[in-house]
Amino acid sequence: MENDFEIIVWDDVIGEPEGARSPECAWRLSAYCFQHARDWCYTGLAVLAAPPCALAMGCCFACLAFEQIWCVAPCTRCLKIYLASVRTIVQACMSACVVPVAEAVGHLCRHIRVNFRKDSPEAKDMLIV
Known about the structure:
Layout: H1 10-13, H2 24-82, H3 84-109, E1 113-115, E2 126-128
Antiparallel strand pairs: 1-2
């Protein structure tokens, strides 16, 4: 897997304006030094720091997986089982109380029409029901 945002090339780091241009040999030598210093430093850091980082990240992801598998999933399942009766009661109350009111308000509002006209300056906005 390649991370495009981490690709570092010489021309992206050092850019000389048109008026100031170093000699070609200095430019090539600087680019060569930059590339090799970057590669050696990265290799050294990867050899020294990557194994401990990999160990730490492996432990973190193992703990995360353990937590999800052995704690979160069973607790969520228990809550679904325990709250199933509460869900049934809430649905029954909503069907008995809220649904008739919402249907009545919907029936009343179904025939409302609003016309907005500005034909003349003295004409008022009208609400026709």
